[in-house]
Amino acid sequence: MAAQNLIRFVVIIILRVFVKSSESISSDNLSPASPRRFPPYQGVRGAYWPSFTDFPAASIDTKYFTHIYYAFLLPDPQSYKINITELDQTKIPEFINGLRYKYPPVKTLFSIGGGGYDPNVFAAMAKTRRTRKVFISSTIQVARHYGFDGIDLDWEFPANKKDMANLALLYGEWYEALVLDAKIHRKPRLLLTSAVYYASLMVRLGDEPRLYPGEAIRKYLDWVSPMCYDYHGSSWENFTGANAALYDPNSNISTHYGIGSWIKSGVPPEKLVMGLPLYGRTWQLKDPNVHGIGAPAVGIGPGDDGTMDYNRIMEFNKKNDATILYDAVSVSYYSYAGDSWISYDDVGSIKKKLQFASSLALRGYFFWALGQDEDWTISRQGLKYFHK
Questions:
Q1: Which residues contact 154 (CB under 8 A, 6 or more apart)?
Q2: 312 with 359, same domain?
Q3: The organism sits in which domain of life (predicted)?
Q4: Considering 23, 86, 94, 156, which one is annotated as catalytic?
Q5: How far apart are CA 356 and CA 156, in angstroms?
Q6: How confident is the model over 343-360, as pLDDT tens digits?
Q7: Residues in CB range of 30: below 8 A, 6 or more apart
Q8: pLDDT by residue (tens digit) across 148-175?
Q9: Which of 162, 258, 266, 379 has its CA 20 to 30 A from that of 352?
Q10: Is residue 156 flagged as an active site residue?
């Protein structure tokens, strides 16, 4: 009871602070504290397994995780039923069987969508009750057939207020269907989660501002997962920046602001699972002698389209004798060698971000993605803060 009362007290204080600010969230209002005692619910140490990579599911060390997501399944653009491709017919059994006898055990979910999927398909599916029902029924059938423990929606992103309203309806109808399914089959209810924008209010260049349905998330989802990364990138900016800044004194593009906005919108901390990247963003510097955060850049740097996995960053730094610096303002690392510049997280910054999540009594965190770490260096950091 003492732990529960402490959590309630901290949440109340946080919410009072956010209510005072109608326009922005000050970086002083959510300063990380020392690690908290674990809340009375199961913490989430999640990670996504991309089925399109060559990292075997059987190689996942489950002592670092509680929940593993299969990424991704996609709905058919016409019928809205989940499309199980020939690749999925091979990969899903590999995923389920590769984890089934692991110890400690983990929960498995499949994620629908992803950054490369057409958001207009989700928008069309969510428009009517009939199409939502077809989609929902299909997801439950797939989960039960293959033995998943839950379902995750990764709609990137609802484009307007109508999409957000329909998303709220989808969440509610989905939850009701899952409850009914559990009763009929006398099995535990499938988990329902959703990967979302880093902040509850989406304000993107040229787009209509729109607010996620916080009340529906609170009522119907087991948790929501803000993707707290991709804040800056060489594909759309001509200056360097922190891929996953915890703080940014000059803008609201930070995890501190994003998580704060979710709490302010009415989503309780115990329903927030904070996203962390196992990759960095790369730039080509305009002038190798000007190499701080915000330095002018002329294009993408090494790696794949301006991104580089953590394990490859470690190799790059060593091979190129790169200069490595920690930026205390953004709580991130960057390295440079010649005109190549990389923003990424390492052990020190990950620890501080996990302390931040723990200090707010968040449900936990997830990583994108498995296969990008180096000997579980980053993955193991969460054991201190979020227990099974």
A1: 71, 72, 111, 112, 113, 114, 115, 117, 194, 195
A2: no
A3: Eukaryota
A4: 156
A5: 26
A6: 999 999 999 999 999 999
A7: 14, 17, 256, 259, 260, 356, 360
A8: 999 999 999 999 999 999 999 999 999 9
A9: 266
A10: yes
| Same domain? 326 vs 355 | no
The answer as to whether 26 is a domain residue is no
Q: What burial class does residue 30 get, using C-beta atoms within 10 Å of its C-beta: 0-12 exposed, 13-18 middle, 19+ buried?
A: buried
pLDDT digits (tens, 9 = 90+) for 262-308: 999 999 999 999 999 999 999 999 999 999 999 999 999 999 999 99
Residue 127 domain-assigned (yes or no): yes
Which amino acid, 178?
A: L
Number of domains in the chain: 2
Amino acid (1-letter code) at residue 70: Y
Q: Which residue has the tokens 């910054």?
A: 349
Separation of alpha carbons 99 and 107, rounded Å: 9
Query: Looking at the structure, do residues 167 and 308 belong to the same domain, yes or no?
Result: no
Full domain range(s) for residue 335: 282-343
Residue 2 pLDDT greater than 70, yes or no: no
Distance from C-alpha of 380 to C-alpha of 65, rounded to nearest angstrom: 9
Question: CATH number for the domain including 320?
Answer: 3.10.50.10
- Alpha-carbon span 364 to 90, nearest angstrom: 31
Task: Return phi, psi of residue 306, to 5°.
Answer: 85, 15
Three-state DSSP class for 120?
A: helix
Q: Does residue 295 share a domain with residue 268? A: no
DSSP β-bridge partners for residue 226: 196
Q: How confident is the model at residue 388 (pLDDT cuts 50, 70, 90)?
A: low
- For residue 83, which phi and psi values (nearest 5 degrees)? -95, 115
- Shared domain check, 297 and 165: no
Residue 100 lies in a domain: yes
Alpha carbon of 164 to those of 76, 117, 161: distances in Å? Answer: 21, 18, 5
- % of the chain at pLDDT higher than 90: 86
Residues 302 and 160 in one domain: no
pLDDT at 22: 33
Angle between helices 129-146 and 86-100 (to 10 degrees): 50
pTM above 0.85, yes or no: yes
287 and 267 part of one domain? no
